Structures are given as structure tokens and as C-alpha cells.
What we know:
heterodimer; A: alpha+beta; Immunoglobulin-like; 2 helices; 38% strand; elongated; B: mainly alpha; two-stranded antiparallel sheet; globular; binds protoporphyrin IX containing FE
Amino acid sequence: MAVTPPDQKIWWNEPIHRLELGWIVIAFLWGLFMFFFMIAWHFIGDQNLSTETYRIQPSAFEAKVEAFAEQYQVGEESGVPVVRPPAGEDVFMLARLWEWWPVLELKKDQSYRIHLSSLDWQHGFSLQPTGINIQVHPGYEHVITLTPTEAGEFGVICNEFCGIGHHQMTGRIRVVE
Amino acid sequence: MTAIDVGSAGIAGATAEFRTCGYTGLKVDLAAQRLIKANAVAAVIFLLLGGLMGLLVALTRWPAVHLLPAEWFYLILTGHGANVLLFWIIFFEMAVLYFASAILLNCRLATPKLAWLGFALMVIGAVLANIAVLQGDSTVMFTSYVPMKAAPHFYLALILFAVGALIAVGVFFGTLVVARAERTYEGSIPLVTFGALTAAIIAVFTIASGAIILIPTFFWSIGLISDIDPLMYKVIWWGMGHSSQQINVSAHVAIWYAIAALVLGAKPLSEKVSRTAFLMYILFLQLASAHHLLAEPGMSAEWKIVNTSYMMYLAVMGSMIHGMTVPGSIEAAQRRNGFDKGVFEWLRKAPWSNPAFSGMFLSLVMFGFIGGISGVVLGTEQLNVLMHNTLYVPGHFHGTVVAGTTLAFMAITYLVLPLIFQREIVWPKLAQWQPYLFGIGAAGISLLMMGAGTLGVARRHWDLTLTDAAHAFEYPPAAFLMMGLNGLFALLASAGGVIYILVVVATVLKGKRLDTADVQPLTFPLHQGAKTVSEYGSEGTVKLPGTIVLVGIFFAAFVLYYFVNWKYLSDLWLFR
Ligand code: HEM
Ligand SMILES: [Cu+2]
Ligand SMILES: [Cu+2]
């Protein structure tokens, strides 16, 4: 029994049940498959999180985002600038207690290089209802090439706990045709 | 570890007192017995506290109830994570380690005094952590990601707790050494002890990671260190946080084997396979933090892929093996017990009214189907982006650590009460229902949180309606429905938890004593009609059609769900 010492001292000499052997082979092959599928998705898939990252001082990042917002601002919404960058351009969004800033207006099927970083604590960039979730750190500028495939209003919700205002921290990305 | 030298243990040996177990005829070291009792009692107290907090959290996330104000919600959620994941589970694991060493090996415990010191440190740490959390300036969640800062005594409390646990693990290793030196058993250690040894070895690695990160964080909180890199913190913190989950898995798998053996007389199909599967947990404990960092900046794709899978998911393979060998050994035992008709008579006629067995089997099934499959999906490099930090994540780990580990710990309690506390279980009828109530509740909250997470609902979040938010956003109505149902299942799970605690407390205080002379010596296995399998060797000749069907269903579910998620992913916006 499992609670008493094995009768055969040298337990690694024992035979293996056929069913066990079969299951081990299946589990092994499935594991191998799942490993290769992750690699394959880098070639066949269109959703692979970028690893392009730079270290940056929060204040430097803030300055970049402000310059960006000023350059392409087209309006204002709940006190936050609405920014419409040209397609293909570098786009910036910052996270701070407790807002995503600024509001972005993007064109469907155009690619943008989105730069994300935080000025204070960690935050969670959760783009809904699409369902893209990316962690945002202070001190790290993460660059993601994003191509919206549908038009509409999208929420950016913070899904990393960031203190008492966590549930008030939302932002917006609008995608137009 | 090295503090345990056989010399000092030898002195303690001179004074060790034993009793003879009325059930098994084994020698039981009284010092070990007292420590098992103390750790089990502490575990249950923190389960009570943490479980209550879990209920409050779930009731707050139930939109129609929305019980706590925001500040309290986050505070209580921090307390919930710490009390159940750290204190309940680890206190109980210490009891399991002492049981698997001193009791199963028929041996005295090495250095009981040191073990008590460890216990005291753990109690102080756990109490201090609760004080820190309830004071309100340590609402940082149990992960305490920097640069968010808790009060210094919050970190200190966790460090004290970890040191205490390390001492207990040391006593466990010491006891193995003593048992070998004093020849209290023949040949190799039993499989269950082997599983516990796996857990203990991983615990050393875990606690070391914890020390490496929490000690500097403590210095940072008192101003001696100016800066801690948030990414580096996460890599090392999850070196502790993830490996500790591998401790839980090793411990609860060992318990599955123990219950199958004690209740049904099951023995492993082959010791070689089961032990190798345990070894895989140690060898392929992936650079454990990797799959918590899949949505993070600054980590290369190669690093993520290799470290989440080590080329082929070897630790997952370990669990898949146990997931087959445990039901396989039960089927083999039951067929030998005479339940040999058809494919499933062995399962139908299993002792479903014995809470030790039903709890164990539910734990096995739900750990595999809910926790296991969702864990692999969540830990896949690209798929993680779909649900990182959504409620899917707590959904997944309530499948592993609540429906799996917690339920297995509850199940073994029904054997520990008569064996170690030497009390007859009071209210056996109530106890009989307990695993079902708790199991269904736990499965419900796991699946519903996973469902809500799939719809995008954020974890650790007070306001599903986002009414105070700068930019309005509405989650789909289905998410609201699921969070309401989640509240109902939380009530069910809590009812199961309360019954468990009531039965344990009443049994410990008022259960009929079994240590008086007139007790009939019962023999294990407990299940009526079971005969212990005497001859050894793999049960090579037995056919196991039921197990084949079970693992077949599991595998089909796994593959299907895996590809469904790739389909979801392929519908997202494009990003690279
Ligand atoms: C009555 C039983 C329980 C209920 C109703 C319950 C419910 C919940 C809920 C609703 C959350 C919050 C999810 C969120 O908003 O992010 C949560 C979080 C959590 N639960 Fe439980 N839970 C229970 C038992 C347990 C047990 C037994 C464990 C561990 C063994 C556990 C471990 C955790 C952890 C680690 C978290 C995450 C805390 C965090 O995000 O920092 N729970 N639970
Ligand atoms: Cu935030
Ligand atoms: Cu937040």
C-alpha cells in the first residue's frame, strides 16, 4: 500500500502497467505538441505579445506622452484630451493613479505602435470587450504594434490592483472606419 | 536544514514516549501527535477566518448584494488570500509532514522542541500579518507587488512565518534521518512519505525565494533600500508563489494515495511510475515564475516558452500521470474487492458515504478537470493575454487550491480525527454531506469566475458597474448573472466549510474517546469488504477499463478546451 514501504526494496526494477505506459506516451506527445504550437503561433498567428521594451524614467515618459497628446489632440472628453494620431504612427498611453491617459482615436485595420508605461504603481491594461490584457510597469516602456480589426468604443479597464481608486481607473480607445 | 544533527536527536530519543495505535498497531510518538494536533488546529482556525473573508468578498462581488464598501473589500481580500493560501494550507501541510514522517515510519520525531519553536514562529507570523492587514495600511493583496508599499510589520510577519515553516521542514528531514538510522522501517520509505518528501524539498526552494525577495522588501519598507525593481520583484516573488503551489500539489497527491490506501486498500499500480511522477515535480519545477509573467514587458518570448513548458510540460505530465494512477489503483483495488462487473461497478460501489473517500475523489476529478486544464491554458504564452488578471485567474486557482488541495485536506481530516486525535467523529451524517456541499460550491465559484473572466471582468475589483469611473464601460449582462450565481455557490461552499469546522471542533472537544481500552481495534482499510492486497508488484494483470474511459474523457476535454481558446485568440485584434 501507499502508506507502507514497497515490498520490493528496489522499486525502480518493477514492471509498468500497460495502461500507465500508454498514458505516459499520450501525455508526453501532447506536451510536445503544446510546446511546438506556441512556437508555431509566432509564425502562423497574428496575436503575439511584443517583447520590445525600454527602460525609462516615469517623468521622461510623461513628457513624451504630453508632447504626443498636444500634437494630435482633436477634442476633449471628461477632461481628458482626445488624440487622433496618423495611421502607422507611434502612439502613447500612460497609466497613473487612477486614469489611462489620453483617449485615443484609431482607424480600423491600421497599425499603430502603442507605447505603454506607468508613472507610479503597476496597472493592468485590459482592453474590453475585445479581451487584450497586458501588465503595465513603472520604469518600463512596452511597445506593441496593434491593429484594431473592428470599429466602435472600447474600454480600457485597470485590472491590476492599484489602491483605493482601482475601480475608477478606466480609459477609452475609439476605433473609426 | 543542517541544524538537525543526529546527535541531539539521539538525546531526545531517550525521552520519546509512544503509544500503540488501536487501529493499526503502529507506534505513535506522542510528541509528533501533539504537533500534528497543534498544526491542524491552527490550520482550521485560519481556514475559518480566511473562509469568512472569502464569503464577504464573494458577497461584495455579487452585484445585487455588493456588501462591503470599497476600502473594506480590498482589505478583506488581502486578508482572504493570506489566511487561506498561506496560513490554512501551510499549517496543514506541516501536520501532513509530521504524519508522513513520524507516524508512517513508526518513528519518533527528531527534535520536538525545535518543531515547537517553528510552530510558535508561524503562529506569531500569521497573527501579526492579520493585525497588519486589519490595521488598514497593508492593503496590498497577498502578492504585495512593489512599488505599492505595506507597513513593515506586514513583510516581517511573512518572513517570521516562513522561517517557522523552514524549521518544521527541517524537523521533517531530521525525522527521516532518525528513522533510517534507527531502522524503524524496512527498505524504501512509503509512497506517501515520498510524496511528502517531494513537497518538503520544493518547500526549501520556495522559502529561499521568499527570503530573497521579502527581506529586501522589508528593508525597503523601513527606508534602508531606496528602490526595488517591480519586474525583478515579480520574477522572484513568483519563484516562491508558484513553487509553493507545487508543494500543495505534491501534498494533496500524497493524500490521494494515502486515502485510497487507508480506505480501500489500494496500492499503486506501480511504485516506479508514481514515484517518478513525484520526482518530476522537483526536477521540472519550471523556472516557476514564468507563467505569471506572460503578459509582462521585458521578458523574451523564448524565455517564456521554455520556462513555462521546459520543452514539453514535464510537470504537467507528472500530474497527468497521478491523475491516471490514482483512479487506476482504486479501480484495481475495488475489482479485487469483488466489484468487478462491467466498466464502472467499482466506482458506483465505492464508499461514497465515507467523507474521506468522497472528498478525495471529488478533489481528484475537480483538480484535473477544472484547475488543471485551465492552468495549462492560462500558462500558454499567447493565450495568457486573453485572461491575464481577469477573474479567470482566481477561477483557475480556486479549481486547484480550493476544489483540489483544500478538499483533499478536508478529506484526510476525517481519518486524522480517529487516528491522531483518537476521537470518534460526531454527527457522521453531517460529515457525510460535507465534501459534496463544499465540492460543488468550490466547483461553482471556480467555473463562474472563469466564465466572468472570459467576458473580461477584472480580478481584485470592487465595482462591476464601473459607475464612478472616468469613462463609462459596461460589462455584458452575462457577466452580472455569473457574478450573482457566483455568490450563490459561494454560500454553498461556505456552508460546506462551516460544517467542516463544526464537525472538527465538536469532534476534537466532544467526540467519543477512542483511546480507552475497550475500543475494538479496527483494521484498515476501513471500507467494508476490502482486503489488503498482500502480494507486491505492479497490478499488471488487472484490466482497468473504467480508468481508460475516465482519462479518455479528460483528455478529450483538455484538447477541445485548449483549441477553443486558440479560436478565441485568433478573433482578437492583431498585435505583435
Ligand atoms: C468559502 C470559500 C471561498 C470563497 C467563497 C472564495 C471566494 C473568493 C473570491 C470571490 C475571490 C475574489 C476574486 C477577486 O475579486 O479577485 C477570492 C480570491 C482568492 N481566494 Fe478565495 N474563496 C474561498 C476559499 C478559498 C480558499 C480555501 C483558498 C485557498 C486555499 C482561496 C484562495 C484565494 C486567493 C489566493 C485569492 C486571491 C486573492 C487576491 O487576488 O489577492 N479561497 N476568493
Ligand atoms: Cu490601475
Ligand atoms: Cu488598478
